[in-house]
Structure to design on (171 residues):
């Protein structure tokens, strides 16, 4: 189901009853603030909520145990991704341009994660927990301005692509 650029859409509650849904795109829906109902989509494998600027609470997404791909790119009001730490099937995660995000510690438990983008998350300062992501092959830290230490990444033996550009404080 694709709900791209539905600018006046505010309520996605009815989508919670689509029990067989495997893929959902709700992008550029500027007025969506609550995705709690999506937590009941037990067969969902792909979820794209990119550029839902007013979205703040993504806690319900932590119950999506079959989710393999999640994009919260440009969700500039998201501050807490703690619930994502329980997504044990997740292989691809984009939190790019989540400007208010500071803590990514919970992501350290995502043992199946192969691709992670934190590009433009300019308030993230500590990525130490990412050192435990042994399956990670691609990591984008472009423009993480407040990041100072990437030493934890030395243990990521599967990593084949690493972007650490415009991270002016990394020493």
């Amino acid at each position: 189901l694709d709900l791209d650029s539905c600018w006046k859409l505010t309520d996605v509650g009815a989508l919670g009853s689509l029990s067989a849904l495997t893929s959902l795109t709700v992008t550029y829906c500027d007025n969506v603030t609550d995705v709690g109902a999506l937590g009941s989509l037990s067969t969902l494998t792909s979820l794209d909520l990119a550029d839902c600027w007013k979205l703040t609470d993504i806690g319900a997404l932590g119950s999506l145990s079959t989710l393999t791909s999640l994009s919260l790119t440009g969700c500039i009001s998201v501050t807490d991704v703690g619930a994502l730490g329980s997504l044990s099937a997740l292989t691809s995660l984009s939190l790019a341009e989540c400007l208010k995000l500071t803590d990514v510690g919970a992501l350290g438990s995502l043992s199946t994660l192969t691709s992670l983008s934190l590009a433009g998350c300019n308030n993230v300062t500590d990525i130490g927990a990412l050192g435990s992501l042994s399956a990670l092959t691609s990591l984008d830290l472009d423009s993480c301005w407040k990041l100072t230490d990437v030493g934890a990444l030395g243990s990521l033996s599967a990593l084949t692509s690493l972007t650490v550009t415009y991270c002016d404080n990394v020493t």
